[in-house]
Amino acid sequence: MNAPRCTGSPRKRRGEGIVTRKKQPDDANAIGRRNFLLGAGTAVAAGLAPAAAEAQTAPSAATAAAAAPADPEPLLTLTAAEHAFFVAAADTLIPADELSPSGSECGVATFIDRQLAGAYGSGARLYRDGPFPKGKPELGYQLPLTPREFFRAGISVANTWTRKTYGKDFDRLSAPEREAALKAMEEGKAPFPGLGSAMFFNALLQITLEGFFADPIYGGNRNMASWKMIGYPGLPATYREDIKKYFGKKYDKPPHSIIDFS
Fold first, then answer.
1. More confident call, 14 vs 153
2. Model's pTM, two decimal places?
3. Domain around 197
């Protein structure tokens, strides 16, 4: 039975938790954000479309280049509190900087809302007939909950924990407090009865990455900001005519979305 999706942190160095200050790209002493996302993002962007179909820093040049957000879309399944949680989490994992706008500015929360409202959220491809004994971590997701139920329960438990620890819901925490809270979840130190905070963090991180790198037709990656950041060309499946022209050169054509061919 597959988990609600899991990978490594975009702000995480090997052997460390969430990094408070990002390094400049190509920093020799750490995995720069662009270098890490170049690998993780290209894989997510290239492999996500079929699955998706199924189922605070000062403004920078990159941020300014992004078009002003459209009027907020009506939520399909998330409550206002759940949406606020995803916005805060996305902006903590993917803050605005010189490389890209923030996660929420790129539409990550909209992507998540759409996914959880559809086939993925209802667990259409999950085996859910049980039994559901407690399994070893290497066996992956073993809970009877659909992804929609999983995230609803996880956010509720997360907010209960942050209220006890910090005196307020996660989305009302300061940026340093949100980072500390996510790090505690990542390391499994936050008590999440019935779920496990590390499992919840991994699922949250994965769906955040997918929203950041997915084709914009699914609600995230607004203005193809992440594709432009890593140099991903987008939808075209063949580059026969460009191979000779760009052989040994930088491919500088703008990316294309499914929308461009619809």
1. 153
2. 0.74
3. 33-261
